[in-house]
Design goal:
By secondary structure, the chain is mainly alpha-helical. It has two domains: 199 residues, Leucine-rich Repeat Variant (Alpha Horseshoe), CATH 1.25.10; 36 residues, no CATH class. The protein is 61% helix and 12% strand. Strands 1-2 form a two-stranded antiparallel ribbon. The protein starts with 6 loop residues before the first helix and ends in a 12-residue tail after the last helix. About 6% of the residues have low confidence.
């Protein structure tokens, strides 16, 4: 019929009509994608963890984050520990050589000339367990040569608490050479010890060091108070006699009992006499009056001359 389109013509027209719409849709999608890409490109890239930590001064080290200073401290400590371990072995070897006549002199010389601060722990351990005084004196000499704070600390401890009197004297002599002031705070503090024996050892060391500034603390330590335990667990009601430097007494049985006694310290008095050149014996008040008026011994007086 005239004026009527065939089916193929209508389908073609529909396809032709759809082309602009699809083209528009594709263009819109492309524009959106392009806009997203442009926006993403404008954003700065997120830094990595390593970059963030680096900005804060950290670097990756042995499975963790450390500053350069921390790494240096860790590695320095490791070097010290390694050196200390090596000194343990070296001192053991030298000690064995001392017992071998052919190598004894050389070994002794090597010990006496030790000057490495890393050797202090090994020397301190060797000093504590050495049974021969001569060898102990070499260890003491080595510590005085090193002169680090740790070495001085070991010398002060030896001067105060080593069980052998000769070793204590040897340590004091070395401290005198280094400078008596390095030992005074520890020794003065020991004058207030609850251990009466330590009080006297501290006084003896101070007297040998010849430190006039120790006179005041020594006066305070002329007589010290100490807690003693008496009684031996006898049946209650029994008595036992106890004697102290200040006198004796009776204690009732039935278990140990604690009491406070006043003890006169002979080494303290000896140190005071050595340091001042005078002697008020056990008269603490007399000593304090003298100290208040004199403040210090005469300038010409050298307590180390005896």
């Amino acid at each position: 019929m005239t004026g009527t389109r065939s089916r193929p013509d209508r389908a073609g027209a529909e396809i032709t009509a759809m082309i602009p719409r699809r083209t528009h849709l594709c263009l819109a999608v492309l524009v959106a994608v392009a806009s997203t890409l442009v926006a993403t490109a404008d954003e700065p890239a997120k830094p990595t963890q390593q970059e963030l930590m680096a900005e804060r001064g950290y670097v990756r080290y042995r499975g963790g984050w450390r500053t350069a200073q921390e790494i240096e401290l860790i590695e320095r400590a490791e070097r010290v520990m390694l050196a200390q371990k090596e000194w343990n072995g070296k001192l053991e070897r030298l000690r064995r050589q001392i017992d071998q006549s052919a190598q004894a002199d050389q070994a002794a010389e090597e010990i006496r000339e030790i000057s490495d601060p890393a050797a202090v722990p090994a020397v301190a351990a060797a000093l504590a367990k050495e049974p021969v005084f001569q060898v102990r004196s070499w260890y003491v000499e080595a510590l005085s040569r090193i002169r680090s704070s740790d070495a001085v600390g070991v010398l002060v401890a030896a001067a105060l608490d080593h069980p052998d009197p000769e070793t204590r004297i040897a340590a004091v002599e070395r401290l005198t050479v280094i400078g008596p002031h390095v030992a005074v705070p520890t020794l003065v503090a020991a004058l207030r010890s609850a251990d009466n024996a330590q009080v006297n050892r501290a006084a003896e060391a101070l007297g040998r060091l010849g430190v006039p500034s120790a006179v005041g603390p020594l006066v305070d330590a002329l007589e010290t108070q100490h807690v003693v335990v008496s009684g031996d667990g006898k049946p209650e009601g029994s008595t036992s006699a106890t004697f102290t430097p200040s006198g004796g007494g009776l204690s009732m049985g039935g278990g140990p009992k604690r009491s406070t006694v006043s003890v006169r310290n002979d080494r303290v008095l000896e140190a005071l006499v050595a340091l001042t050149g005078t002697n008020f014996e056990w008269d603490a008040r007399g000593w304090r009056v003298w100290l208040a008026t004199r403040h210090a011994p005469p300038a010409s007086f050298d307590p180390r001359r005896g």
